[in-house]
């Protein structure tokens, strides 16, 4: 403290209060500028988090939709897991925004008010000290003027007495009157000399106190205020980095989650799912048998019923055979049989 | 492979090609949807990086401005360092965006084209196989019809011959003619029977090949295509997390830089700077001496010159004394002396 007292006391007060007022004003504006900077950063983090959340939401499967049942596939589930991790990731950037706002922005905003009040007080004290020494000087000046004037009066009275005393045509009474007048003037000059001396002592005492005690103390308090302000900015800047460093481990957990999701994908499982979904259970049809119409010669009666039976079985086997045939085509075929 | 061949060969082809077409189409759309998702994420990262860069730029000191010379203070330099680290931090999010775009988006976009082409080829083969077995069936059907018709013809000719043979009023020649006719019809029926048998064999061979070789192979290739697709999505998802994990160490270096910047702040250094800037070098004025106007009595001549001298020194000492006096006030004071 005494060191900085020494430092700041090197400042001659002449015009330095004005400079210090400008400097400390700038100091407050610097804190305000930094606070604004952190505020804008926090807003960027919020909007980033919002966009990421929306992205995650946008690609979530719609409830009770075809999409939802797609999540029987490991690849779809992995995507869903990624989206959920992404949502947590967004949450971490919200944490950054909230911490910046609660640990820096609101703190500094409050602090700036304290700082303004303290600064005002110091310069108020400074002005009062200046006012005091100024008044003390005025008193000294006027008492000096009075002394000067009274000396002139006394001088004039002395001259007049000497003149009368040297004049032989003047009555003793007049000489006596002039003598008393001169003595009275000398008495008045002596009195205002003492008053002037008293004010001179007072002023020199005040001036010494002003330069060696009052002003240095004010400067010291301003310097302490400044050093606290700079200290405070430093803490905020440290906190600014800390806030984000705190979320890094959680962010990297989210990334691990995404990697785990990706590794949980099992292509064979998914294709097995497809088979489970689509397999009809049909067995491939066996060979078509020979139909010997030659044995049916002369047995036209049984023939027709036999043909119908074949027609049946044929239609069944056919419908098994042409999965890709257009429906109407199958109709004509069936109709043909 | 044979296991998945077994799996997919459980699928009876009936309508399964249609289902597989739908499923594989959905598979392609899933890759497209994922690609779109990564694209949107990359755009979010870019705009975030842009905002952060602008923020850093906005608070940089204006070149050749009063701001710039403020950077003699450690607190201002620390802020500048924070801004530079923040700029690098933005750069890392640009790296994320670029990696997503080069390692996932463009890769998958190209891959989707390959996938579409391969899928088209498989279903083309499928349809061709179906077409082939269909034609084989048609040949079988018509040859069977022909055989059936020829048997009826032979039957009719046989009945006619028997009728003629039993009729005593018919000439031998007519009987012989009917007999030859019947024999010829039988011969034709035998021929179309052999043709029918040949087509039957061919069809059964085709059908067996269709169900036990062609279709299973197509299904297998489709399944392999699907498994490659799912594998590919998995790789992309792994890459998606990796891209961001890679920048984390650099991000945390940026944060270390910000912390170092904050710790580089030295309040006492900065206040020392202030003193260096503002100190006037003036020494506090000494005591004001007594001016004895009484000794100047009767020495009016020298008096005036003496007074002027005092007036000088007074004006100097005064201007030292009232830093806070309004300029005009100083004027009047000076004028007064």
Short recap of the structure:
Helix content of chain A is 84%, strand content 0%. The first copy, chain A, has helices at residues 2-9, 16-58, 66-69, 74-166, 172-263, 267-278, 300-321, 327-336. Chains A, B: Keywords: Coiled coil, Lipid-binding.
Topology:
The structure is a homodimer of 337-residue chains.
Chain A: H1 2-9, H2 16-58, H3 66-69, H4 74-166, H5 172-263, H6 267-278, H7 300-321, H8 327-336
3D architecture notes:
The structure is a homodimer of 337-residue chains. Chain A has 337 residues and is mainly alpha-helical. Chain A folds into two domains: 221 residues, Up-down Bundle (Substrate Binding Domain Of Dnak, Chain:A, Domain 2); 42 residues, no CATH class. Helix content of chain A is 84%, strand content 0%. Chain A has eight helices and no strands. In chain A, helix 1 packs across helix 5 and helix 2 runs parallel beside helix 5. The longest helix of chain A has 93 residues. Chain A is rod-shaped and about 200 Å long. The N terminus and C terminus of chain A are likely disordered. The interface between A and B is large, with 131 and 130 residues.
């Amino acid at each position: 403290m005494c060191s900085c007292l020494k430092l700041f006391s090197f400042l001659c007060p002449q015009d330095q209060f004005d400079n210090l007022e400008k400097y400390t004003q700038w100091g407050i504006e610097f804190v305000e500028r930094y606070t604004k900077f952190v505020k804008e950063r926090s807003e960027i983090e919020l909007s980033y988090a919002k966009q990421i959340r929306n992205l995650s939401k946008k690609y979530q499967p719609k409830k009770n939709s075809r999409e939802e049942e797609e999540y029987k596939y490991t690849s779809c589930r992995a995507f869903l897991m990624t989206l959920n991790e992404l949502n947590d990731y967004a949450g971490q950037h919200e944490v950054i925004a909230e911490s910046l706002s609660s640990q820096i922005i609101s703190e500094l905003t409050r602090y700036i008010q304290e700082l303004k009040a303290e600064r005002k007080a110091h310069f108020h004290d400074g002005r009062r000290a200046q006012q005091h020494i100024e008044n003390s000087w005025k008193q000294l000046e006027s008492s000096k003027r009075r002394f000067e004037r009274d000396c002139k009066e006394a001088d004039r009275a002395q001259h007049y007495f000497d003149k009368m005393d040297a004049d032989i045509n003047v009555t003793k009474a007049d000489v006596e009157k002039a003598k008393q007048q001169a003595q009275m003037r000398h008495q008045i000059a002596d009195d205002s000399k003492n008053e002037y001396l008293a004010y001179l002592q007072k002023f020199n005492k005040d001036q010494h106190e002003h330069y060696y005690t009052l002003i240095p103390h004010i400067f010291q308090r301003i310097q302490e205020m400044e050093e606290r302000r700079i200290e405070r900015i430093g803490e905020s800047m440290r906190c600014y980095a800390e806030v984000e460093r705190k979320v890094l481990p959680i962010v990297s957990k989210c990334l691990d989650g995404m990697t785990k999701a990706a590794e949980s994908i099992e292509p064979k499982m998914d294709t097995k799912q497809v088979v489970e979904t689509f397999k009809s259970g049909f067995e491939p049809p066996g060979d078509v048998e020979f139909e010997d119409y030659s044995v049916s010669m002369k047995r036209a009666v049984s023939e027709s019923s036999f043909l119908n039976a074949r027609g049946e079985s044929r239609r069944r086997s056919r419908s098994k055979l042409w999965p890709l045939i257009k429906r109407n085509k199958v109709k004509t075929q069936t109709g043909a049989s």
